[in-house]
Structure formats: structure tokens, C-alpha cells
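User: Some background: our group keeps a shared notebook of sequences we're curious about, and every so often someone picks one and asks for a predicted structure to add to the entry. Today it's my turn. The entry only has the sequence so far, pasted here. Could you supply the structure so I can complete it?
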Amino acid sequence: MIAIVGGTGPEGTGLALRWARAGEAIVIGSRDAQRARDVAAELARKAGAGARLTGAANPDAVASADIVVVTVPFSGHAPMLKSLRSSFNPGAVLIDTTVPLAATVGGQPTRTIGVWQGSAAQEAAELAPAGVSVAAAFQNISAELLNGDGPVDCDVIVCADDERARQVASDLAGKIPGARAINGGKLENARIVEQLTALLISINTKYKIHRAGLRITGLPIPGPSH
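Assistant: Of course. Here's the predicted structure to add to the notebook entry:
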């Protein structure tokens, strides 16, 4: 079971849709349990026959899963994680997609704000209960692409200090058609990956699109499958 905290937003619904189509069991988490159930039902219709999607309040969603994906705006990141500490299962993997965009606190979406831990992902690692491993991933994928039907033309840079967390995030990236997991090194490197999202937003604005992504070239690993 994969719990997506803040799963009713564009990024959460897009990831849920792609993973449900790949056969994964998903629980959409929200502060409003009924909204979570409504969004899960809508996504199940979109994902097609056999999709396993349910909805629940965030604490119940986290308690039901061994993989927790955080897709909340940075302004709610720390309060949400603090409120969910007691809900995590021992040994769970937390995958953080959060980007500290200035827009979440009234600034410009093309800028990030400083996080004293270094990055949103490092903040998550500090706030997560002992025994929960953290990976940073999926910050740079267009929510518009995720919520569509075609392949996602973007690599997923995965940063983690724990190899199991890295593998879990990488495996989930590989379930999205067109995506490819790239080992981005230690969790501290997430600060660089998070800042790239602000750059992509700027590029999107300049070219009047919503689908700019990243590809890493020259690697001795297979390219993405479409």
C-alpha cells in the first residue's frame, strides 16, 4: 500500500493515477476524509478497471501503508509531518516530493526559500520518527503530464542516505511510462534538485508551457521506456 499525503493536489493525483495504472494499491490522504474518498473514486474511474484506490484522512492513510509519499506545499510541510509522527509504521519509507517554493509563503514561484536543514527532504528526515527512512524524488515532474495519458518525458533524480529508500523510490519511478530513476547521491543533494523545480517553472513561463522536464544524458543505464 502506498499512502499519498496531500494526495488531492495536482502532484498527488498524478502520481496516484500513474501508480494505480501500474497495479499498485493507493490510499489518497487528505485533511478531509470525504474529499479523499471522492478524489480516489474519480481517479479509479480514470485509471480503469482493476484500479485499487481508496481515500482516508491523512493519519489513517499513513497508518495503513509502508510507503508514504508527501506531496504537500512547503508551507504545510513541517506541521503536517509533526502531526503524523505517531501514524507511521515502523520501518516505513517516506518519499518527499516537496519543494520550498517562495510562492507558498507569498513570494514568486520561480524562487525557493532557505530551509535551515538544507532542503525540504532533510527537514522531513529530521521530523520523521526513528526507523523511517527518507528519499527525495519526483520534485521535477510536471503534474500536468502525470495527470495525462501519454509518457512522462522526465528523469527522476532520487536522493537518499538509505539504500532501501532509494530503491523503493527508484522502483516507483520506473512504473511511470517514460520516466527513469537517476541516483542523485546523498539526501543533502536534494537541495539542488528542489531548486531545479524553480528553474523549470521559469522555463515554463518563458515558453508558455507546463511540461518542461529534465533528462540526464550520457549514462550507462537504459533509457526510459515509452
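Suggested note for the entry: The mean pLDDT is 93. The chain has eight helices and eight strands.
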